[in-house]
Write a structure and sequence with these properties.
Structural class: alpha/beta
Number of helices: 8
Bound molecules: calcium ion
Strand content: 15-25%
Number of strands: 14
Largest sheet: 5 strands, parallel
CATH superfamily of the largest domain: Response regulator
Strand order of the largest sheet: 2-1-3-6-7
Shape: globular
Oligomer: single chain
CATH topology of the largest domain: Rossmann fold
Length: 240
Amino acid sequence: MEGRRTILIVEDEPQLRGMLERYLRKEGYQVESTASGSGLRSIMARSKVDLVILDLILPDADGIELAKHLREGLNTNLGIIMLTGKGDEVDRIVGLEVGADDYVTKPFSLREFLARVKSVMRRVGDGASRARTPKIAEVVRFERWEFDLLRRRLVDPEQKEVTLTPGEFSLLKVFVENPGQVLSRELLLDQTRGFGSDSLDRTIDVQVNRLRQKLEIDPKNPRILKTVRGGGYIFAVNLT
Ligand code: CA
């Protein structure tokens, strides 16, 4: 079926894999699944995948390495949700070097899982539909950075392109659309995910930190994305 979104499940526990597969199919998604990293590679090579559900620990591969590999791939608009166990280093997973859009800790409810899937799909889908619409490029500039909202391109002052995950893109987009305004975590979550949830507050902090690592000269002492005590965050420089 043309136009259906494709989700690839990479999970070595057969029961969980089967359950997620059936559930997502019932929700109308096209679903592929594999138990291994090598399976992931071969499916990615032959299918157009919109979202990868990636288990952190696989028999033949490290989920973190696989996520990094996916992020370096051609499909910059790919969503990645990591499945983690209790006690896993979640900061590393949603953290800087990996670029997953979200994570779900086992055991999780199918409802929670679906909410994450839908929210990442929304962001990924947003990019796909934008890319098909030929519009005049919407480019904003700040501090010698260039951010092309249509092409989802961020270029640094040295003219080097900086890769953003779909989550980072959505977040930076909200910031540049609201410069000089204090944006609460709640609002940022709402704008980037499309639904409200208190428990995900930390994810916004992690995503802001990731953006800082990419944008700021000194991420510990940010000039562009500042923290407002008790308030949230503010895009603190002017757009030019
Ligand atoms: Ca596993």
